[in-house]
Amino acid sequence: MPRKKSAVYAANAFKAETQRVLDFVENAEAVPLGDQDLTWVYELALVKTAVAFERLMLACIVCAVNNDTSTISEQTGINFPKHLTDEVCEYLVTGGGYFDFKGRDGLIKTFRKFLPTTHYLPAAVKLPQFKAPLEQLIALRNFAAHESPASKAAVLKVLDLKRISSAGAWVKKQGRLHQLTAELHDLADEIIKSAPY
Description:
mainly alpha
């Protein structure tokens, strides 16, 4: 019998990982670093936070399919067997590649392929209080990782700014990384509260 995944476990693991990221930033701030070095610390923190979030979303989709294949059968019109391994479920979601989505709306679109709209996961991500933090996380991560004109234009739009030097420079001021992480933890708590497993 395949082992069952737990969205509650995945959400708690996400919170622990992002707390480790915050601890890393705090440790870096205690060392005499130059301004540019500290900016890079924050950029790394953004990327690591985004990776942890992507892992959380993938784990939750895999968990939903793994625990109840009727969800994916309903969405695809294909009758899947009752028991699938988590590896098979992950392959169904990623197609053997990596888990990718374009922004919050792209994530919701990905959910539609595998989950009914009434499922707790899309319901949680669609809550209005999580729209801004998710859009910010994704846009800031893309700008930190790519530094392209397109990623800069996207982050300026999301943050409603006219200019920005870097994602790390913006997020290191005014406790923005801590605030963003706290809002993502609220989303993880919503998953913990809503997930039946």
